Amino acid sequence: MGGPAVMVSGLSNLTFEQQDFFSSEAFLQQGAPFFVAVLAYAIGNQTITQRLFAIDKNKIKATFITATVGYAGIVIGLGMIGLMAVTIGVEPLDGNMNNLIPQMVSMYLHPVFIALFFILVIGSLSSTADSDLSALSAIMMADVYGKNIAKKGGVKPKTMMLVGRGTMIVATAAGLVFASFKLDILVMLVFVGALWGAIVFPVIASVYWNRVTNTAFTAAVIVGLLFFCIARFELIPITGVTALFFEIMASVGGAVVIGLMVFGFLGRKIGLGAAAIALVLMLIFATGFLRQYMVLVASLTAYGVSTIVCVIVSLMGNEHFDFDLIKQRVGSYDKKTKVNTQSTRDA
To answer: What are the residue ranges spanned by the domains of the chain?
Structure first.
């Protein structure tokens, strides 16, 4: 390709916003929506929790640092490939942005690095697919079949295994169908981020608040995702009062994001204070302005709407959950086995 000198000479091809490292336009159009999506993925994805339980508690900090550095290196590296394409004026094959990185790799990298790139891609896809399929099958086996379909004491291990394997097969087939649609990977990333964003508050609230019900959780996720789709794909005209409504919901979502981040490091009281301050600031500065960046509005709306629905529906009910009792019952699918175990201990 000619080395770094070609890239430097091609910097003149960049627009003013592309040349500005601290461009607010770039942050609001792309950076912020993807930041929100990745944050939601880290909190909402069950596979993250599963991996945490597999880590030695004395090595959690080192694990997080290693994962962060490794993940950042991959993201920055792939971003640099995109920057190379812009500076030298490469157009994606057939106008499909999904082809840009494979196109750049095949054109300009040494065969050894091409092989390493494909190992990286295949390894990443395999790891993600394996983890997500395992998590989904565990949910179907334990929560759907074990807790809701099978009668108490009547859980059959063979049937549970069949449910898990069937779930993997159906999910894999669905994934292949979606892949055949050749959807824009950046659009899909934001969509998946919004899906996770809709469950972030309900997931965390259900751990710390004993009022969150199944109805509240489910309604929050469905309504949050529905409003995201309306805003993201502009299914209705987003103007006037409608635009103001979505900006308010996005402001609530932004407050939730800030509050949860601060809560994770500094505790509940400071987190609530940070969320309140963020909400006031966003209501002042974002209304009338944020509607220009509908991708960001849609992503934050998923957070905001799901939070509001979860709180309202939970407060409408009178249920108060005993976390100690839930802990005792969790994982106990067969009452007979528990009785037999107790009898054996007594003997």
So the answer is: 26-55+184-328, 122-183
